[in-house]
Design brief:
This protein has six helices and 19 strands. The protein has about 290 residues and is mainly beta. The strands form three sheets. Strands 1, 2, 3, 4, 5, 6, 7, 8, 11, 12, 14 and 17 form a twelve-stranded mixed sheet that branches. It has a five-stranded mixed sheet with strand order 9-19-18-15-16, with no helix packed on it. The protein is globular, with a radius of gyration of 18 Å.
C-alpha cells in the first residue's frame, strides 16, 4: 500500500494516480492524513485490494508532506559505521545517539528550502512511521509497530548544532524546511526486505551519498525497541534512522549547501525528494 497527501487530502496512490480516501470510503476515514495512524490496522484492512479504477492523475505540485503533525520526531545520529568513521567518533558506538527534530521543520517532498547560513549539511535518511502504540516493545516485534516507510532529509546547520559547551542537535536540525519527507508512505509489507534498501543523495546530479540500510548499526526493529524502552511510541511518530557516509562536514575540505542548487534524496521502492535550495536570512549568495 502506498499513500500520500494529495491536495491536502489522504489518498491511495498508484504511479501518478490518486484515489481520495474520504470519498472512496464514504466518509469512514477522514481526509486528513495525520488522523489515519490511530486506525492504521483498520485502514490497512480496508485498503487491501482496493480498486483504484476511479483514481485520477495528480501532479508534483499537489503533493505535500505525508505527515505534518506527529506527536514525536526522533532522530538517530551516527547509525552507519562509515559515517561514524568520517565523523571521527571513538570509541565504538554501543547505543543509539538520539535527538529530536521539532515539528515545524517538516516540509514536503518538492518544497523549496531556505538556507539560514552557509554551513547547512545534507543527510538522506530512511524514516519509519509508527502505526501502533508501543512501550517496551521487544526487538522481534519492532516491525509490527511500523506502519510505513518514507524518505527523509535531516538537514543540519552545523554551527548551531555543534555550538558549545553542549551541542544543540535538535535546534541545528530544526530550522523551517529542515525535515522534508515523502513523496509517499509505503507500507512495510510492500518491501521484499525492508532491512536492505538502497538510499542516495545527489546535488545537481552529483551523487554525494550512496548506501544501503542493511549497514545500519541499529536496525529499525532495534530502534523501536530501544526508543520504546524509555518513551512510549505513538501512532504517527517519525523515526529518522540515520544517514550513511558522504556528508559535507566529513569531507576535506568541508563542503556545504549553497543557494541555487537542487537536492535529490532517493530510497529504493519509495521514491525521491526534490528540494530546491534558496538563500535565507544570513546566507551568502543568491538563488
Amino acid at each position: 500500500m502506498r499513500i500520500g497527501r494529495i491536495g491536502g487530502r489522504l489518498a491511495l496512490l498508484q504511479d501518478d494516480r490518486a484515489l481520495d480516501v474520504e470519498t472512496a470510503s464514504d466518509g469512514r476515514f477522514a481526509a486528513e492524513p495525520d488522523r489515519i495512524f490511530e486506525r492504521w490496522d483498520e485502514f490497512a484492512k480496508w485498503a487491501e485490494g482496493r480498486s483504484l479504477d476511479d483514481a485520477v492523475p495528480f501532479s508534483a505540485a499537489q503533493v505535500g508532506a505525508p505527515v505534518l503533525r506527529p506527536a514525536q520526531i526522533f532522530g538517530i545520529g551516527l547509525n552507519y559505521r562509515a559515517h561514524v568513521s568520517e565523523a571521527g567518533v571513538r570509541p565504538e558506538i554501543t547505543s543509539p545517539a538520539v535527538f529530536t527534530k521539532f515539528v515545524t521543520s517538516i516540509a514536503g517532498p518538492y518544497d523549496t528550502v531556505a538556507l539560514p547560513s552557509d554551513r547547512v549539511d545534507w543527510e538522506v535518511e530512511l524514516v519509519a512511521v509508527i502505526g501502533r502504540p508501543g512501550h517496551r516493545v521487544e526487538e522481534k516485534n519492532g516491525w509490527s509497530h511500523v506502519a510505513a516507510l518514507t524518505v527523509g532529509q535531516d538537514l543540519s546547520e552545523r554551527t548551531v548544532q555543534l555550538a558549545g559547551p553542549v551541542p544543540q542537535f535538535s535546534l541545528g536540525k530544526s530550522y523551517p524546511g529542515f525535515s522534508p519527507i515523502g513523496p509517499s508512505l509505503v507500507s512495510v509489507e510492500e518491501f521484499a526486505d525492508p532491512d536492505d534498501l538502497a538510499l542516495s543523495c545527489a546535488l545537481d546530479g552529483e551523487v554525494l551519498q550512496d548506501g544501503r540500510t542493511r549497514d545500519l548499526i541499529f536496525s529499525v526493529p532495534e530502534l523501536v525497541a530501544r526508543l520504546s524502552a524509555v518513551v512510549p511510541l505513538l501512532p504517527g511518530d517519525l523515526v529518522f534512522t540515520g544517514t550513511p557516509s558522504g556528508v559535507g562536514m566529513g569531507r576535506n575540505p568541508e563542503r556545504y549547501l549553497q543557494p541555487g542548487g537542487t537536492l535529490v534524496s532517493t530510497i529504493e521502492g519509495i521514491g525521491s525528494l526534490t528540494n530546491r535550495l534558496v538563500a535565507g536570512s544570513g546566507t551568502q549568495g543568491a538563488a
